[in-house]
Amino acid sequence: xxxxxxxxxxxxxxxxxxxxxxxxxxxxxxxxxxxxxxxxxxxxxxxxxxxxxxxxxxxxxxxxxxxxxxxxxxxxxxxxxxxxxxxxxxxxxxxxxxxxxxxxxxxxxxxxxxxxxxxxxxxxxxxxxxxxxxxxxxxxxxxxxxxxxxxxxxxxxxxxxxxxxxxxxxxxxxxxxxxxxxxxxxxxxxxxxxxxxxxxxxxxxxxxxxxxxxxxxxxxxxxxxxxxxxxx
Length: 232
Hints:
Layout: H1 2-11, H2 17-36, H3 40-83, H4 88-100, H5 104-117, H6 122-139, E1 142-144, E2 151-153, H7 170-182, H8 188-203, H9 206-230
Antiparallel strand pairs: 1-2
């Protein structure tokens, strides 16, 4: 099943040919490792990694199906806009489709163009303000209001929701810097591999530990590829 999903991704251009070969080799290696590994715990660990990556791939497959749906809608909206550049409904739908795909900046730009055509629409203006707020929270460090627990952009003095003063402390500054680093998922992969590898060296015989560590490195490589592809 995993092989067919990778082939479908490659057919639709979601991964390159090289990435498809690498993913197939990784999952094939893990599948062989399930049967080749000696010892109950090693085999169980390799099987757990293999199943976790299979679940990840299925979830990504469903996400990519939804992505293709919105890409089709974008093509329809763009064709309508080419026919009538002042088609507000098409431009608004285009912005919503980009937002559903996670392209927040493009969605904001599309909605700004739509509002330049019809500037007096309150609902769309509120939606634009909401998206711009999300972009500010995404691109800047944040702090949580102690009163209503709303996330605010770091540096604001008054809460966006309850309008109460925001209290800062030196400890919060360090926590905020650490959270900004840990926000990137790639930080966890090498840390997790090192921790699991260290535990394997202490708990397993040397040969089994080496097999297990190689499987972990293959799993981490596959996970990194999937993370990079999910952001495209």
